[in-house]
Amino acid sequence: MNRLLGVELMKLRRSGMVWIAVGAPLFLTLQGIANFLRYSDTMFAGSTRTKWEILYEQCMIMYPSLLLPLVITVMVALLARLEHSQNGWKQLLALPVTREQVYKSKLVIACLLVLLNLGVLSIGTLVGGLMIGIEGDVPYELILGRGLLAFVATLPVIAIQFVLSYRFSHVGVPLAIGTALAAPTLFAANSERFWLYDPWTYPVMAYFGPAQEGITRGDWMYAIACGLFLLIIWIGLQEFKKRDMV
């Protein structure tokens, strides 16, 4: 398993996935900081929120509902494409490893890429706020803690895109499905009933549930996210063991 993880990490060096994982949240963070500096007086006037909370909102506002699902879709699809092209499966499965080990190692890499993505967003917001000299106590629980919870909330999305990406050899299939499922996220997040049936809304709840009274949800959402992740990944593993990947 450790050897496989090492091989997968070496493959990442020759791909653009790390740049996607880092570049997308970094761009949103810089844009959020720029908006904060430009409109902070207007946004802070008459508001009970602290400047840290306003900066947090500016950096995160579009990410969990729009960009994050698309970034996950693209990264996982590209990760699978490394094996779908140029007889990658044939070469990989010829090694003295089991299919379950291959499956789990690639899943770990996919999760690490998403964790890196969310970490850059949280740490970038924190560092940016310190660099521009925002006063007051730093809300670490909000900026860093919510980022970790958002990772848990994204697990079902990772699982679905992971199974789709390794099930279909054509990269366009998981990309199209992932984009279509991400499109109605904002509408579903504002629904009192149907949001629970759309895992793409979970990151929105993780980031903004505590701050927006209208969409506050119970912590049991994270238990559901973990349960869905394990179920989908298990089903995908059983199918992966039986399929002719070469």
TrEMBL record:
Q: Provide this UniProt record's keywords sorted from A to Z.
A: Membrane, Transmembrane, Transmembrane helix
Q: Which domain of life is it from?
A: Bacteria
Transmembrane intervals: 18-40, 60-80, 107-131, 143-164, 171-189, 220-237
Q: Which Pfam families match?
A: ABC2_membrane_4
* Protein's recorded name: Uncharacterized protein
Q: Which organism is it from?
A: Aneurinibacillus aneurinilyticus ATCC 12856
